[in-house]
Structure prediction request, 147 residues.
Amino acid sequence: MLKKHLVIALCVAPLLMTSCLATKGTTGAAGGAAGGALIGQAIGHNTSSTLIGAAVGTMLGFMIGNSMDQYDQAQLNKAYETTPSSQTTRWVNPDTGNQYAMTPQSTYRDQDGRDCRDAEILATIDGKAEKTLTRACRENGRWVIQK
Prediction:
């Protein structure tokens, strides 16, 4: 009985989570967890197999979901690296159709001695435009968004 409830919970939770999570990595992780749990239960017929299947599925789903965003991350890094201050770079993700316009400001050094740039990013996702202000600093040769 416990196994049946666990499998049901692992199948329903990802559906609820995907409705309120925005990133493709987390959505992929949720779907992977459900699929992994079902496969683990089918193979091992016990709770341990179900949990192991869910864990492996979560990891694989997250990796697949995040790879969908790698194009945008590469474009963003390129824009931070090469776009002159106050000029806008635009791109469209060929897989998702999401559109971006990024306008970086001048590079400066932060208190840790890293090169940093502030930028305005206008993202149009599913027809809805959203503007954000970001800061990225150079770490190990790449621009990393600061939180």
